[in-house]
Amino acid sequence: METQVKAIRIEKNGGPEVLKLVSVQVPAPQENEVTIRQKAVGLNFIDIYCRSGLYAHPLPHGLGFEASGVVEAVGSGVKHLKVGDRVAYGQSPLGAYAEARNVPADRVVKLPKGVSFEQAAAIMLKGLTVQYLFRQTYRLQGGETILFHAAAGGVGLIACQWAKALGVKLIGTASTPEKAALAKAQGAWEVIDYSRENVAERVKELTNGKKVPVVYDGVGQDTWTTSLDCLEPRGLMVSFGNASGPVNGINLGVLASKGSLFVTRPTLGTHVSTLAKMKAAADELFGLVSKKKIDITIGQRFPLEAAADAQEALAGRKTVGATILTLD
Ligand code: NDP
After folding, report:
1. Fold topology of 142-265
2. Which residues contact 115 (CB under 8 A, 6 or more apart)?
3. Is the ipTM of this complex over 0.95?
4. Is the CB of 179 under 6 A from ligand 1?
5. pLDDT per residue over 136-148, tens digit each?
6. Gene3D superfamilies, per this entry (predicted)?
């Protein structure tokens, strides 16, 4: 049965003003889809790249990859979900900014009792990202000292807590004393306020000259060189985002001159490409949440119709922790 719902769409790339609240039809789900009546939507920096056109998709299109809600209808081929299930997803096709929508069922997991809709919308994409960064891209064992940029952000605050749970000393970076204090309170070992201190020098000091085996960098262009300067010989640069702009035009010789460094540019999609992989990563994430090793910080809530304001706040470094869109 078709239903009419409100959703955000863009017809062209640009600033926040291109976001339009429109009425759309949600058709009955196809064989391998479920219809989800959504309760909360997670906002992510990638939404801004999709809006601006840095990550181009055929227009017009919706926005958002992450949300939670209740299953309202199930396609005939779906085995692991039923009507009424509490569910969430963090890696769907574009279009999460909506009251209800159809999602491929292999992108959707059931929520454990202890995780609320708002928490799930705040943690699926961001928490699964920390899972693969810490458990797959560079498998932390405990005892390492690492550098993680934007430690007070959505992904960052989860990383601070996950690192602590693993016995890893996370050195974070942040732009203000308030953000630095928050990241430290949530488990970072040290946080460098980069508006006042030189990051590479401070990392050297904190590690007694040794520097770190891995840097996790979601800031991109502005931090590229500094990040390489913080790595020990044969260290790994994990460049996983572009908050300040993409990293372009790299001369590979720089990796040689700075000590035979490695670089990777991973995406969440590669790591949760099947339902089994997604469930395994989500189980690990939800396990830490239910053991209270990870407390979910929702720093900002906006209604669906204020999605443009929410994106402006995120792009303008005015947010801490996760930002969600709430739905009635
Ligand atoms: P955040 O909440 O971390 O927001 C971005 C933060 O980056 C800001 O708060 C700010 O923190 C910092 N920053 C530094 N320079 C800039 C700048 N010029 N403009 C804006 N922000 C800047 O966002 P998310 O948690 O949603 O995402 C963090 C990063 O992780 C993003 O780059 C995102 O694309 C990436 N990501 C990548 C994934 C992947 O699989 N590859 C998956 C998920 C996220 P401060 O003020 O402290 O500097």
Report:
1. Rossmann fold (3.40.50)
2. 88, 123, 286, 289, 290
3. yes
4. yes
5. 999 999 999 999 9
6. Medium-chain alcohol dehydrogenases, catalytic domain, NAD(P)-binding Rossmann-like Domain
